[in-house]
Amino acid sequence: MKALHIITGLGVGGAEQQLRLLLRHLPTECDVVTLTNAGAVARGIVADGARVTDLGMAGNRDVTVLPRLSGLIKAGGYDVVHTHLYRACLYGRVAARLAGVRAVVATEHSLGDSQMEGRPLTRGVRALYLAGERLGRMTVAVSPAVGQRLSSWGVPRQRIQVVPNGIDVERFRFDPAARVLVRKRFGLPESAFVVGGVGRLSAGKRFDVLLRAVAQLPPDVAVLLVGSGPEEPELRRLAQRLGLTDRVRFAGEAGHEEGTAADGVPDLPSLLAAMDALASPSPEEAFGLALVEGLASGLPVLYSSCPAVDGLPEGVTADATRCPSDPDAYAGALHGLRGGVRVPARRRAPAAAEHYSITRSAGQLMRVYTSVVSGPTLEVTPR
Questions:
Q1: What is this structure's pTM?
Q2: Contact between residue 349 and residue 297 where contact means Cβ atoms under 8 Å apart
Q3: What mean pLDDT comes out for the span 193-198?
Q4: Over 60: is that where the pLDDT of 318 sits?
Q5: In the predicted model, what is the mean pLDDT of residues 38-65?
Q6: How far, CA to CA in Å, does 168 sit from each of 66, 271, 296, 297?
Q7: What does the DSSP 8-state code read for residue 230?
Q8: β-sheet with 301-303: strand ranges across
């Protein structure tokens, strides 16, 4: 089987990095097309051995991309076209139909109740999405919550399949040596209780809630924020106003490979090893991948929204606590965690991390590919 993945861009982002990880584990030949921005993740995919084509799309309304994309699909002889992110889902589905490929799968990575990919949902956005959806055979939801949202929009339930995001569990195994090195790099004392936040520094992630919570806690509690984004200047100003300048570290984007760094920043497993807890005050998430990675590192996690945790089967354990997206709630929960053991010789991943193994997700996705190639629909419902 030969598959083409079409994605809006390949800069640093959760959907982009999830695609790269999937490509490493899918037992099929895959090529990638990015409509624009063949950034850091594109370079990583090429280094892994896959081909990436950048179409250089000029903007959302650059319809000249359609004949080029359609021609590329037709020339490639692909059995399946798999689209990722809103713009690529719309243009990719149309181009696949023009090329005569009907086995089209789309993954919905970032659909919340009020936003999609960080942007507010409007009637126009929804109508255009549904018009494009009719051109595909299956929509993959990364969590049951996303599947339910799609169904409530009017996407037929038989065209929705839940395939959760996955992680390389072994890569996130706790490393005590990395803990020491990262704390030394960022000037974090070993005696400090370090609370982490991982994700795009945007308003919707509500890392301001975390800073306001830590301002209520003793001075041995520090914050390590991993990521970049438009909200970083405001978060820095907030830290200064709260008197937290010496207790907050902005790590920037994490490195993406073991033993490497992006702009000198350690990789994410090393950064997680340096933390004592991971917090996600975002009130609206489609999955919560960073929290699953934190669990794999053996961290207790506090969250306001995490379909990955809420969707765990009965009996699958996770050291996770739901908190309202409120500074007082987070301050109380962190105060309780602070009283525990802070310098573990060893941290273990709970069963929840294994549940989200990338090999399991890749196997589920291959079954979706087989179904759309062999028949018109797959008779399944979100779960």
A1: 0.88
A2: yes
A3: 97
A4: yes
A5: 93
A6: 35, 16, 9, 11
A7: T
A8: 248-252, 221-226, 193-198, 277-280, 301-303, 320-322
